[in-house]
Amino acid sequence: MKRLLSLVLSLFMILAITVNGCFVMAEEGEGTTDSSETSENHYEPKKGYINSSMVTVRLQPSTSGGYLEDENYGPHYEYKQEVTIINEAYDDNDNLWYEVTFTVNDKEYDTWAFGTYVTIINENEEPSEVIDDNPDEEREARVIESSVRIRTGPGTEYPQFRINNEVQYFTKGQTIYIIAEERDTDGDLWYKVRFELYGNEYVQYIYSTYAQIKVTVNDENFDRYLEEQRFPESYRESLRELHALYPEWNFTAYHTGLDWQEVIDKESRLGYNLISGSNLAYRSVAEGAYDVVNKRFYVYDGSNWYCANRQTIAYYIDPRNFLNQYNIFMFLNLSFHDSETPETIQKLLNSTFMRGSDNISGMTFADIFYEAGQRAGVSPIYLAVLARQEQGTTGSRAITGESFTYNGRTYSGLYNFYNIGATSGEDNWKKGLIYANGSEDGSYTSYNRPWNSPYKSIVGGGMWIADGYINDGQDTMYFQKFNVTDVNTYGHQYMTNVQAAYSQSGTMYDTYQMSESLNQPLNFSIPVYKEMPYSTSLPTTYTLPTTLEEQRRMESADPTIEPEPEPILPVYTGDFITDMSLNLKEGFITGIQIGTTLKKMTESIQRSNENYSVVIIGADGSELNSESLIGTGCILKVTDASGTSTYTIIIRGDINGDGKVNLQDLLLVKKNILGMTALEGNRLKAALISGDTEVSLKTYLSIKKYILGMQDIPQD
């Protein structure tokens, strides 16, 4: 009521706001507020900080308010600027604003900041809530799922992060920096992360499952293993990261011997791979999948399952898109593991209709799945995941035991937890229950049929899956979806949902994580194809054909990128400057990539000329070891028959000479721009990026974007 009154009053008055001794007039409808709501006499000051960078300083609580212009400060708040909150107000769009005071260069300011960008410090809590400036305490990570929700707090009960009232999402592959870990009320782990969107920096939350911490470990034995397995280079970096995170995991290359183009052709046959949902970019417009005359897609199963197009199929078949801690489980060997206990399975079932007991047998569903796994020699977690995938969290008509009519005959008391035999088409669940009955007349009794109880369906179905798939070579979720094994190749595929293995893998990961079973020996079988494209991606746009000729032309188009070219072997001249594409000017060498070690640098120079003798010492004259990073100011001495040449190394962006480009370098640039500390000598040369002649805001942004993983820093 108070805020409603303020909006009414704002139509009849003009509010004068005093800022730094000047009157700024707020016009009608521009965030005016009720004086009783904004009076300093009724507002208890709070401590806080600005949680984003480049936040505009306003003179009024409104986006149309004037900017603060000051020769010493400028029109934006600093990231993590400490402020005192002395008031708050709502603008006409119901957005919260804080009136804040802060000090810069011994001068105090009084301004307004948009509420989203201000974090209030609870002085009764530990001050660790405020971000620490020490970059060593941050951990770099990348987002491993698409369209991940950004939360304003550690839990799904917190609202999604918005910019200008628009919900924002993390994108797959986005670089983020973990600054804290917190758990929600269910005990699930969340990361408090720093990241950049639209050129601004923010601090919000992401569910830990969707962020993979970047860990780099030089493991020559593992590299040799990858070589022995003949994993293509495009697989190896992701596998190195997983090995560093989970050294007990084992990765085996399954060389299919199949040509990539042939695989996509076979899997693109109509009806083999279906997609649901409203995204038309994923649907096939091939003849038989799309009706050109009536401009509609043909439904292939249920009410909303359509044929997936070639590009979508290629994306879900490409193993490299799923070599992360979350989706790697689609390649997990599905044999029985002793570590999978009923307690582990129960955690998976708690949020489903299977959280309790089967009313017929009296056993808990967790115990039934465990027994089914033991008897079939199959992972019981996988069986539970599969049942959950097929039945959802609330169940379907396939597991209620209710009566139904099929071909004029009435049946009841049948159960099919895995939807075995429920082939695509109308009332497919009935077909599955007819299989559970042992055919219409009940003459087939294999796998404990008829399945007239949940127990018999889960245990008997587990045996069917083991005999029909896992014991026949299709021993991963991936191979069950895409049969690229040498037995019945391209056939005998368990499900038509093109996303099935992808969806199940996430559930498997969640189960292992919840049961704290990730750090155990697990075996993954990862397929490799011949003539693979450089990469694959999901389509984002679509075109609907208008004629049959256009439809057939579009159907034959290959959406994938050209295969990786064969590597071209380098030709060495004997001059390492030329061979390594370095630049030499007045005794300074540039062009060395960030993160180059002494060992790698030495090997590269001696690869150019084996007669070179190489010595590299630190900028301070210290001795470096083989894994030391080459940094700005390092001295390189190269000796051959003609004598010794000495060079000074400059790494663009590495201002402090530690061989890295991080927040410490950003701080040095910032101090130079503010006139606090001048960069000179080698440090100045390292700060001149892309041919710049002076250190400027452009330098600051170049380094900042590199740290956030948005762009590289060119080394000349």
Summarize it:
With 716 residues, the protein is an alpha+beta fold. It is built from 19 helices and 31 strands.
> What is the chains' assembly state?
single chain
**Helix coverage percent:** 25-40%
Record the strand order, biggest sheet. 8-7-6-3-9
Radius of gyration: 31 Å
Name of the level-1 CATH class of the largest domain = Mainly Alpha
Can you walk through the features of this model?
The chain has 716 residues and is α+β, with helices and mostly antiparallel strands. The chain has five domains: 2-120, no CATH class; 143-189 and 202-213, no CATH class; 220-326 and 534-555, no CATH class; 335-473, no CATH class; 572-716, Orthogonal Bundle (Type 1 dockerin domain), CATH 1.10.1330.10. Helices cover 25% and strands 21% of the residues. It is built from 19 helices and 31 strands. It has a five-stranded antiparallel β-sheet, with no helix packed on it. Strands 17-16-15-10-18 form a five-stranded antiparallel β-sheet, with no helix packed on it. Strand 1 and strand 2 form a beta hairpin. Helix 8 packs across helix 9 and helix 17 (663-673) packs antiparallel against helix 19 (697-707). The longest helix is centred in the middle third of the chain and has 15 residues, at 454-468. The radius of gyration is 31 Å and the shape is globular. The two termini are 62 Å apart. Mean pLDDT is 82; it is low at 1-41, 124-136 and 558-569.
